[in-house]
Amino acid sequence: MGAGALALSHINDAGFWMFTKLAGLDVAAGLRTWTVLTTVMGCAGFALTAALWPLV
User: How would residue 56 be classed by pLDDT, with cut points 50, 70 and 90?
Assistant: First the structure.
């Protein structure tokens, strides 16, 4: 559930604004970068969970 929620993060997420300001990006570049990063992290979380499922 956590990986799926992370992959569908939205612009009103506080993490998006902190990342954008700390990275020095404008909103458009931040949104493009944030979308790719959260999608990759969500898919990686799902893949790790799926790989560990048979061991549990």
Answer: confident
